[in-house]
Design brief:
Elements lengths: L2 H11 L11 H18 L3 H31 L4 H33 L2 H15 L2 H4 L2 H16 L4 H30 L1 H4 L4 H54 L3 H9 L3 H53 L5 H42 L21 E9 L9 E9 L3 E5 L6 H8 L7 E6 L2 E2 L5 H5 L2 E4 L10 H6 L6 H10 L3 H6 L21 H14 L4 E5 L7 H14 L4 E6 L11 E5 L2 E6 L1 H6 L4 H16 L1
Parallel strand pairs: 3-8, 3-9, 6-7, 7-8
Antiparallel strand pairs: 1-2, 1-4, 4-5, 9-10
Helix pairs in contact: 1-10, 2-8, 2-13, 3-4, 3-8, 3-13, 7-13, 8-13, 10-12, 10-13, 12-13, 17-19
Bound molecules: adenosine-5'-diphosphate (ADP).
Length: 637
């Protein structure tokens, strides 16, 4: 499939899969607590930081209310000038001091916290690189990873949101507790207003509490419903965003797509599709905007009712000498603080509740179990590299598939030998290599190394026996030396030797900084772009550098013509010396130099022998394929 179409297929298939998942409150608390404890584990200084930040914020807000109340009382009570000046200095100086400390602290806090998502992502990347390979080929797992990333980067959700809400939630809880403390104090002063009428005082207190509770419940309801709808919208918009991002960031900007766009005048079609997607996104954005505005109006009305009610009570209390005039400033500040923080507190808690799904998705990913048994046996180190590999009655089907790709597959081959594996596309050649390298384990049967089931060997040690150049090999944009050695530190002589052997000496001459020169110019202007053929050679040099007992070429040359592939394969055969080499190809001509050719058909080993032997078997698949393919090679020549 064309690369661009492949991207599109991936995107359209990718759906937001957390939809409709309902979590209980207990589960929500457990998941968020796990998230918070991971954050504190990743960034241990974060807990004291959050607490100090919340404390400074509360201090900063209440300092002015407390000292303003004191100053007003000083003036009302006509205390001495010296006391008034002292309180005024405390009010202004203290406020300035606390505010400055708070601002500096916040700057430092943001600076230190800016990489939290990268820290959480580091865990995710560790998981991706070390999880069983079969998960890498699972569309479900890949979409999960994409959604976690998109949620964190585009919407700032998941672990990211949890992190950023820890401090505000602590801070707002403190504000609310203080406001409740003041309210309790205010109610205790009711007995002065209703002197000698304790029943009225109690009735008024109950009424006051009821009004507050009703307003608070109403406010919670409105915020919660709106937040849930907003999150539903965000879920709905994600596939559109993904699709939209694909067209605008990936398709239009890609070199390989640029040719198709021009040749087929795709501009109008693409603009139409982009506009169509944006329209859908814009509808959702408008919906969210309207929702937010409605919530803002509704909560504004509730807040105005509560404030009016409390100001009325404060007025009555001052008139009845239940509180001082200065205290009105304090309570008024307290009320506005409470209303502001309470609204945000509810909104943040409802957002945290809705966000739990994405925190869960992060942990679901991190918790994907390691199915593969990683073994403990050390691999025997043999100077003579004499290893015998045996596939004994191996059958294999891919997870979720209904058909066997390999069926009762039995072969043996000895280290130091060359084995060519040929067969039509889709016959199971690459799957054979994947099983040999334990990227998958057989569904039935066993694979033995010197008579021992390969599952028993230490996985890393076993893997270090192989160097494979896959059909879809990748060369990352890193310095040439690091690319070949797959290490930051390497033996330069050895790298140069590997590059010389694959015929990249001339390329090295062109490199301005030798082995330090980055391959490709994507991320470094001093880099050097290399052709597809040169990239293949770098991949082969990488395999040779590692000097493993097995080297495998799994059609890395599929994009070349048959003659070029034959040349690379036969040249490679000279390079590998005494090692075991396995050659995979669907083109028989590429492997004819090899004395041991295995023919696979529909997951079965159907023939084995040298080219000269196999071509004699007129009834065999090899003979038929050879004759069919020969016409094309002659044409190509
Ligand atoms: P070959 O290398 O001979 O071209 P493969 O071993 O790549 O063949 O594939 C053999 C069969 O297994 C094909 O039908 C292919 O579609 C299927 N297959 C390959 N990879 C997967 C996978 N990850 N999941 C499901 N089926 C797969």
């Amino acid at each position: 499939m064309h690369k661009c179409l492949q991207y599109k297929a991936d995107i359209t298939r990718g759906c937001f899969r957390v939809k409709g998942e309902k979590l209980s409150i207990r589960e929500m608390i457990q998941i968020n607590c796990r998230g918070i404890s991971l954050i504190f584990k990743l960034v241990p200084w974060n807990l004291p930081f959050c607490c100090i930040t919340a404390f400074l914020d509360v201090l900063y807000s209440y300092w002015s209310y407390l000292f303003l109340a004191r100053l007003v009382d000083d003036i009302a009570e006509k205390v001495s000038k010296a006391v008034i000046i002292q309180d005024a200095i405390l009010l202004v100086g203290g406020y300035l001091f606390v505010q400055t400390v708070f601002e500096i602290w916040m700057h430092y806090y943001f600076y230190c916290s800016s990489n939290i998502w990268e820290q959480a992502n580091y865990h995710l990347n560790q998981k991706i690189m070390n999880m069983d390979y079969e998960y890498m080929e699972s569309e479900h797992i890949q979409n999960m990873r994409r959604d976690i990333d998109a949620m964190a980067r585009n919407d700032g959700g998941g672990m990211n949101l949890l992190f950023w809400y820890i401090t505000p939630v602590i801070e707002k809880t403190l504000h609310i507790l203080i406001a409740f403390g003041y309210t309790a104090y205010l109610l205790s002063r009711c007995r002065i207003v209703f002197e000698g009428e304790p029943v009225k005082a109690i009735a008024f207190s109950v009424f006051f509490i009821c009004v507050l509770v009703v307003m608070i419940v109403l406010s919670i309801r409105i915020n919660k419903d709106a937040q849930e709808k907003i999150y539903q919208c965000s879920e709905k918009s994600l596939p559109y965003y993904r699709h939209y991002n694909f067209y605008t960031n990936e398709y239009i900007a890609k070199e390989e797509c640029g040719k198709t766009i021009r040749m087929f005048h795709q501009q109008n079609l693409l603009f139409y599709r982009i506009a169509e997607l944006y329209e859908k996104i814009y509808k959702i954005i408008t919906l969210v905007k309207n929702l937010r505005e409605k919530v803002s109006v509704a909560t504004g009305i509730i807040e105005a009712v509560i404030s009016g009610f409390i100001y009325f009570i404060l007025g009555v209390m001052v008139l009845k000498n239940a509180i001082t005039i200065g205290s009105v400033c304090l309570y008024a500040g307290c009320i506005s603080n409470f209303l502001l923080h309470f609204r945000e507190w509810i909104s943040q808690l409802t957002q945290l509740a809705a966000n739990t799904k994405y925190v869960k998705m992060y942990f679901d990913f991190i918790d994907i179990p390691q199915k593969k048994y990683e073994g403990t046996l050390p691999v025997e180190k043999r100077d003579d590299d004499r290893f015998l590999i045996e596939f004994r009655h191996v059958s294999f089907r891919y997870p979720g598939s209904e058909t066997d790709v390999l069926k009762d597959f039995s072969i043996k081959f000895q280290i130091g030998e060359r084995l060519a594996v040929v067969g039509k596309n889709g016959s199971g050649k690459t799957t054979f290599i994947k099983l040999l390298c334990r990227l998958y384990d057989p569904t039935e049967g066993e694979i033995l190394l010197n008579g021992i089931d390969i599952r028993k060997f230490d996985y890393k040690e076993y893997l270090s026996l192989f160097s494979v150049v896959f059909q879809d090999f990748k060369i990352p944009a890193l310095p040439l030396g690091e690319n070949v050695a797959v290490s930051l530190e390497y033996d330069e002589e050895k790298v140069l030797y590997a590059l010389e052997r694959v015929g990249l000496g001339a390329l090295l001459q062109k490199m301005p900084n030798g082995l330090e020169t980055p391959i490709y110019t994507d991320f470094d202007r001093n880099g050097v772009d290399i052709s597809g053929g040169e990239a293949q050679k770098v991949a082969i040099a990488r395999a040779l550098y590692h000097d493993t007992p097995f080297v495998i070429l799994d059609e890395p040359t599929a994009a070349l013509d048959a003659l070029a592939e034959y040349e690379i394969y036969s040249k490679f055969d000279d390079l590998v010396g005494t090692k075991t080499a396995v050659y995979i190809s669907h083109r028989l001509s590429s492997c004819q130099f090899c004395n041991d050719i295995l023919v696979i058909d529909k997951g079965k080993a159907v023939q084995r022998g040298s080219h000269a032997d196999l071509i004699q078997e007129k009834e065999g698949l090899y003979y038929t394929l050879w004759n069919t393919q020969a016409q094309y090679y002659q044409l190509e020549k």
